[in-house]
């Protein structure tokens, strides 16, 4: 496969890499910071590892050159390829939040849980996460610092709510904030923002507090794993919070009426009808299908229902 359409320069020695998750373009992005100590943020799925490797080779990063691989969290669309990339780049340190570190070293439990959710679709969407040598994993806590060389740093900021092992990452040189899934899913074709609230970790108050933390960081640009760069930082973070509240209110109403997940999904779809251009009557149906794979209503509703049950 050619790398011609997988690499987009973003300035500041940052390159967006389309990881071509499950063969889709524009669904999951990794980012290479081509600093003195090259750093890969979000390697993507196991199935994406060869695509990412080709892109790094095209950008001049060989097997001994990659200094660091950082994941915002350990969900398979972000971190499923860590073990593969670690083997391809044996000098790279792997950085992850402490709550996710053991799953990178021993991914069996994570894979069992994922297979229960996705069934046979798991292999098509993600592939199998390979274990990473525990000696190469550095766990960060509330904050952490990744040395990019030349005085440049990537600082991690613990940002749970979407997942209990989630961090945001701020580049000291560019002001880029890698938001993972904490600010939801950005659809560049339509500038829509949708929440990402899968089970089992979603919690509204925690997620909103993480968005407040992101606002306080004073980022110049948001870099979404799904998908791409966004310059309108304050407006986008506010929209992210607004969408979370709307979805949770809709599910809470359904939950209060004793609805099961299927009926709650229908109620939410009715409540959000017309909010997103990507899902409107004039939208490209393939675009809607692509994002439903990544960010399905049923998964989001199930995560919110789970959080309401936990509160109750």
TrEMBL record:
Pfam families: Lactamase_B. InterPro entries: Metallo-B-lactamas (IPR001279), NDM-1-like (IPR050855), RibonucZ/Hydroxyglut_hydro (IPR036866), ST1585_MBL-fold (IPR037482). SMART domains: Lactamase_B (SM00849). PANTHER family: METALLO BETA-LACTAMASE SUPERFAMILY LIPOPROTEIN, METALLO-BETA-LACTAMASE DOMAIN-CONTAINING. CDD domains: ST1585-like_MBL-fold (cd07726). This is Glyoxylase, beta-lactamase superfamily II. Residues 27-226 form the Metallo-beta-lactamase domain. Coiled coil: none annotated.
